[in-house]
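Two entries, shown back to back:
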Amino acid sequence: MFEESPPYLAPPEMSRTSGILRFSLLSLVALTIALLAVVAFATESSWWSLLAKGLLLGFAVLGILWLFWKALQRFLWSVGRRLAFSYFLIGIFPIPLLALLLILNSFLLSGYFLGHLYRDSAVSLQVELQHAAETALVEFSSRHDSQFGHDEEIEFAYYSKGRRVAGSKLLPSSWPAWLDDREMQLEESKGSEAIQPFVALADESPTLVGSASSGRRAVIAAFAGPIAEEIGLRSGLDVTLMRADDPDKEGTIQVSLGSREFALVPFKGGRAESPTATGPDDGEKIPWWQRPVLLWGELAGPLRSLEDGAILTDYVVATLRSKPSTVFGHLFSGSAEVNTAVWASLISVTGLLATIYGLAFLMAFFLIFALSRAVNRLSQATNSVRAGDFSARIPVKRRDQIGELQRSFNEMTMNLEDSVAAVAQKEVLEKELQIARDLQQSLIPANIPSSEAAEFSTLFEPSAAIGGDYFDILRLDEQRLVVVIADVSGHGLPTGLRMAMLKAALVILVEEGLPADEILRRLSSMISSQDERHFFVTASIAFIDLSQGEMELTNAGHPPTYLVREGEVREILLTGNPLGALGELFGQTQIRLQADDVVVWLSDGLIEALDPSGEPFGYERIRQALNGPAGGASEVRERLLAAVEAHTHGRPASDDKTLVAMHYRPSGRAVANSSTR
């Protein structure tokens, strides 16, 4: 079996949205239930109150069904639980259900048999009483003396002209005319159509009677002994007769027979008492199979007064007790009625069990089929991955453990596919970056032209593998130099290629002997022709005549140039448009250099260096760092870089850092130029 794992986790944004919707829905439902409760229980009885109670009941039912569904869904999420549940449905669940159905069916079938035996015995007694009454009437009509027939078990009453002339004094003194209405008696028998209603004698005990009348003479034959005992002896059952009374009356036995509620009261007379003839002798141990453990109830018709036919109680209830052997003895008897009931019961139970087993089999089949299909798909996809096909995916339509496993597999293959593609792409990119990095390094001057009159110190520190800054120092002749610093927009390989294009064009234009503004103008036109909206270049070009100490400075949107002279800093700020931007306006000025002047060109990466709080270094700190004795180009560079490092506290740079410092010494000795790349 699979081990249970946590449910699939949705992305945080989806989870938050789902949580908000769920909370809103639950709040709305809770508010609705609260309002319904107020309307249902805080208001007077009205149709509004009834409607609210009905809706509350509906909410309760829906809530219970929802909880049951969620519990079942969570339980069946595990594959192991699904298999166990399917096996339970097939092999275990039907057993107690079958036992319960057999017990219930046995009880109902036994009750049917008990009622059948009771009715047959009562009918046979009724037939005998009716036959005895008819026989006594014939004898009474043929004799003229006062001597009539007598039976120990039957009490007779003989009537002439409506008056009793002989017989038992327990029977009415006047002829009960209602006995002549046989149709009424049969209608009131309440399911026992062949049995006349029980009648009450003078001592209020119930019994059955037969009657016959002809002309002016009539005869009543009433059973003389306990009627319950006689029916019990005939049927083999323990029979107790009780009368139905007011259900609200205290001291009564409350019972339910069918859809009717009764309060049972024993009869006052001794004729309805339960017999003991079928029971064992005192002290005899009763085997369990012989104990009267079966109990059933039968409804008879109304109890009428024998004298006037008045209804004393609507029903007479017969409680029946029997031994299981009595039922089994009649179960396979030759009675067609009994056999029909047996077969109907067996067919019903068999059909119900077959239906239950069929449903259990179908459910188990679909569970196993779905599981097998999901496992087969997973196996095929796994074989594809093993063969090197990382594009294999499994369609996910389940929301259980199998579905979670399928989603995990798809995520795994997707990650593997991305990883393989990323590795291949990374290898290609690293090769391209190495080529571009080598190309960019080749663009930065490795050997700075040496001169007795000029000492250079440089810094080139890109923030990425390929930066956008560029500087160059070109020698026109022994006394003339060209210093260029530029910042190409962007980073990466495209920027490196643009930088290479810029240097190639710049070298050609400088060698042609064009002035600085014309050089910048042509470079701007070339950049504009590239048809790239976000491609522009800031640049600053200085033509320096070392012998004359003259410097022509031209600026195209680049940060200012700084001149350090006798411990003071001068910021040379020239307006101008970047190359490739709208317009070709460039700032230009002439500067007369003095001995020990230090000229500093830099990029915006030094100016915009950020401290941990996000504050840039700024132009003011640039001037403060450069302020002081010049000393030399290297000293000025190190002083500025130390100030920037103290400001950033070692925070990684977000932009390229480029710096060119020149120390002018027209009559000095040669000094080794320094640079950092």
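entry 2 starts here
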Amino acid sequence: MAIPDVNLRELNIKSSMILHLTSTIEITSYRDLEEKMKTQQKIFMNRELSWLKFNERVLEEAENKEVPLCERLTFASIYQSNLDEFFMVRVGSLIDQILLDKNMKENKTKMTPKEQLDAIMPQVRKLNRRKDNVYEEMMDSLKEHNIHFVNFQKISKKESEYLRAYFQAEIAPLISPTIIGKRQPFPFLKNKEIYAVAVLETKNGKEKLGIIPCGNEVFERLINIPGKDAYMLSEEMILHYVPRIFKGYHVKAKTLIRITRNADIDADAMYDEDLDYRDFMVELIKKRKKLAPVRMELSKEMDGEIIDLLCGYLDLDPEYVFYNYTPLDLSFIFTIQDILRRETDLFFDKRVPQRSPQFNEDESIMDQIAKKDKLLSYPYESMRPFLKLLQEAAEDKDVVSIKMTLYRVAKQSKIIASLIEAAENGKDVTILVELKARFDEENNIEWSRQLEDAGCRVIYGLDGYKVHSKLCLITRKKKGKVSYITQIGTGNYNEKTSRLYTDLSLMTANVDIALEAAEVFQALSMGETVEETDHLLVAPHCLQNKVIHMIDREIEHAKAGEPAYIGLKMNSLTDKKIMEKLIKASKAGVKIDMVIRGICCLIPGVKGETDNIQVRSIVGRYLEHSRIYIFGTKGREKVYIASADFMTRNTLRRVEVAVPIYNTDIKMQLIEMFITMLSDNVKAREEDHNGNYKIPKNQDTPLNSQEFFYKQAYLNAKNVNS
């Protein structure tokens, strides 16, 4: 075969062009990737940092002098308890991730666990300084109301003698000091308990460590000095008398410490199918109490060597050591509030959940729901109609079954009492009790035992999924005809939290909704999940995809030049798939309003990306907990209430239920509520394009949405009663 003539120069030129083009493509793709990463950094916020911004908004309520003083104390306590849980769950999880895979990156900002922890710690220290400052300011304000906290440097000889006698008689016999040595190893320090720690020097110059548990249910934590409105915390008294406790030693240094332990434990990963699930959860709770420390708080600065020694005993990085200039546990403020209860100006005006105008409580609740869908809005309206519904169902001879999901229940529960009575009356009562409801496991275990003893069929959740839905189905058979009452809510079946959390509860006789609710219960009974629905949105298989479909529909309307709208009210937004779709909708021209109390990983108002998205957070007297989804403009809007936030854990790893609102009046009621919350300029904070939260600019007409809803509830109740 003849070899063709080849122009070497031409070949070289072509080769160099190919190389140039290839390198250009590589550079272009790299630049594209780099730009994409920069854009992601602009429009996404790390989940943990977003949560800290939420807790900052809680702290702002403690700092807000327009809030009554005793209520400000409550917000300071909430800030602290929130932070405790944050370390126990989120920081604990990140530390575990480092041990598993230190290069693991979260899917939004691409931060590794270590990078997240490095960003978290300075923010926590900054917020804690603010907490210390506001606490000091509030303590000064309490002096005007005859509440004084004393220290041993500023008390009289008589007071000193009283406290010494009190300590010797009331506290000293009940404490159990320990000196660390060869025969006495470092003791186990309980989660969130306070301990006095002292560096002790022997006569021959050796140093030892002394530890005293300060928590004891027998003696009072808040000690009153007789004849005065003066108080002292028991742990401060114990710390002062450390030299009396460790006689024969020279006390070189002393401090109070408090340990926070990891609580992030995967029940499903540890479960052995050969074990009884309830017994397994009992043992799991015991194990959780003994997990590794993730934080140590101190009341006084200590020598670095002592800190290193304590961290060595606890296997804790000194990075997770925090100095607090406030008491290590603020729960005593509730005792102070009880002392000041008669000074009404120090508290919010009294508010009592009102009678709903949708119900006549003198008539059958079931019959009223059969005629028309009903909605309750907590805490503005009383939970009483729902409680009456359950009790009525328990007593009604025509009711054949009650099925219900329970996630968090009150310690004194009328709901449980009605379910037990229903079972004792021979009705088929099936209850799913979620034993993996974090920090409520023990309460749920006890209730599950009582329900079983009464003859209820109790199901304990699903393998790999938490059941977080708020679903109740009552089946009635009268004269051969079957009818249903379905209740679907946004909040737990808990009488206590219904007075503190904002939640919604729909009750309907709609057969289509009832039949799909029955499918949910049937699937749960078999340890399965629902795959398809026509009406309800049911996670994990048919909530996220249906939400995305409804967003797509709004995008289509926007592209066609028609008005398009999405309104979302929830606690948290972290689901990246949904967020990416919301970004696409914003770019297409869809107007998106979101009221998100806590975590929001999507940053609004970023030019060219999230211009059409507005985010507000309401942190007020009541914990915002309701979820509302609105898709479409007036005349074609679809409205849902739901148990699910748009978090991946909710949309893909839990059983959640959202219910469509078919009643026109209720639909309008929810839309009006949503608009009112968007208009809040007192307790709302608006998120800007940098991810910072600020008070809305328009302050001409102050609107506190929670107060507005309560005033409306009082007015409605007055009209009903007149």
